[in-house]
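Work Package 4 report. The design task specified in the project plan requires that, given a folded chain encoded as structure tokens, an amino acid be chosen for each position. We show below one input record used in the internal validation round.
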């Protein structure tokens, strides 16, 4: 026996004659569908389309029956609106960078008081000897052009922000402390520390050759020839000569920093990078600083 009616729809469940849920018309509803059509089976009396329930496009906090409305302003709809706003801001910043218009900012990068930074296609950095500081490489200008840089100067003091970047995780910063000055005022790096991800990981070398590595407060053992991966993805390795290297890599941005006991009572710091933006005293110091003007910047580094 067929339960298909003249409109081509089953008016009940075909077993016991009870009305199928979709067959019940919403009160007072009329429209283009045949009587009894599932086209009228919606949620509430305002529904005229069974394929789009009454809450479709609405902004109420709940649906019929108390179910949260996914399109409410305090639900996923609000989250999507905030996300769209952030995307628009990022697009605007990118447009400013590509057009050579600096983004206004009052934030500092690391401990750099001026907030200056520079972007490099490739770069070599150093703080060696007593200590001689240097930066050389190819700088990427805001207008897309490049220029060669070669900055050298001496500094007998320690640097809380020798160089730093926000290109990796929650930041990467190298700091140095110096020895007591000799009779003629000469100092060397007594220690060098790389602090990563807002302080969650760190690597330190002293001028006695001692190396300490911490990852979220836990000491990490390291032996010559060994390499370990920290929680932030950094590769830390100890060379056969007792040096320690920290490598960061992210979508074509690379930075490798090495601390070496120079055998003369100091720690030499060297680094090479590709496609990185750097701030810090190496970038802004000396008589011919690399960063002459504000470059496009990310959020400031924060260390606690």
């Amino acid at each position: 026996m067929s339960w298909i009616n003249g409109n081509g729809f089953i008016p009940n469940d075909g077993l016991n004659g009870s009305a199928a849920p979709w067959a019940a018309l919403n009160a007072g509803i009329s429209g283009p569908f045949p009587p009894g059509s599932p086209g009228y089976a919606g949620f509430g009396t305002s529904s005229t389309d069974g394929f789009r329930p009454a809450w479709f496009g609405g902004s109420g906090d709940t649906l019929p029956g108390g179910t949260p409305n996914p399109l409410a302003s305090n639900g996923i709809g609000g989250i999507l609106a905030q996300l769209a706003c952030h995307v628009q801001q990022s697009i605007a910043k990118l447009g400013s960078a590509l057009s050579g218009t600096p983004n206004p900012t009052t934030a500092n990068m690391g401990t750099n008081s001026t907030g200056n930074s520079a972007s490099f296609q490739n770069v070599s950095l150093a703080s060696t000897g007593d200590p001689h500081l240097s930066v050389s490489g190819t700088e990427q200008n805001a207008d897309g052009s490049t220029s060669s840089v070669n900055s050298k100067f001496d500094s007998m003091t320690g640097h809380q922000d020798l160089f730093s970047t926000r290109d990796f995780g929650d930041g990467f910063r190298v700091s140095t402390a110096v020895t007591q000055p000799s009779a003629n005022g000469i100092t060397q790096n007594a220690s060098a520390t790389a602090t990563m991800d807002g302080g969650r990981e760190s690597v330190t070398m002293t001028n006695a050759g001692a190396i300490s590595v911490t990852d979220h407060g836990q000491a990490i053992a390291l032996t010559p020839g060994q390499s370990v991966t920290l929680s932030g993805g950094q590769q830390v390795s100890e060379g056969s000569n007792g040096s320690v290297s920290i490598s960061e890599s992210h979508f074509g941005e690379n930075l490798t920093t090495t601390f070496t006991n120079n055998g003369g009572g100091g720690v030499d710091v060297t680094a090479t990078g590709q496609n990185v933006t750097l701030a810090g005293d190496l970038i802004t110091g000396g008589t011919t600083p690399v960063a002459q003007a504000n470059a496009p910047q990310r959020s400031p580094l924060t260390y606690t």
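Helices lie at 76-99, 281-284. Validation will be extended to a larger panel in the next phase.
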